[in-house]
Amino acid sequence: MRVLSIVHEAGPTGGGGIFERAVPERGHRLDRWVAADGEAPPGDPADWDAVMVFGGAMHPDQDAEHPWLGGEARFLESALADGVPLLGVCLGAQLIARAAGGLVGPAGAPEVGWFEVSRADGADDPVIGALPGRFRAFQWHYYTFELPTGAVQLASSASARQAYRLGDRVWGIQFHAEVDRTMLDHWLREGKEELPKPVEELRAETDRYLPRWNAQGRTLCDAFLDEAARLSS
Question: SS3 string of 24-55?
Fold first, then answer.
């Protein structure tokens, strides 16, 4: 398959982490579009068999500060119309919801750090169903999304919606299942003023939770790529 990764910061700390690495490891081709550079997308959405959209420090409605957001939203609208399998992570999930007509805006409370997430009762899903019924997820967000028309909520935390499916080929997750150690070390160092507890505590929690979280994240990514391969066959 050809898989497009849409990221909002160049370099290893702003990309798709273990999700991007999974693509070539499975024998697929990975293309990358740094949307925040303001360049046009490297093709039409239908050129790819799957598209993954990752996070960023900006919010999904900040078009005035980040004019390229409108172009990315239009690309995602086209991807939805073309039926391209999509997976959005954090900002990516919010941008897909926006492209599908859902409202996006500030969450009732931010989530920065490790939080418990629960899958919805009866949520039998080929992608999100790869995760346990309850799991400890890494979060870093101030915004949330309303479900677009036709979407199904698949997971939640105490503060926000955490996962949805739209149709049979679009998924969004609020939590950072793609994050690896390099990314987390950078985020904790550069964003320490935003942390709700001392950085030493979050690093200790990361040491405890990250190995299992990376295994669960890879399982989730594999499930999405399996489903995209099935849909494109």
Answer: HHCCCEEEEEEHHHCCCCCCCHHHCCEEEECC
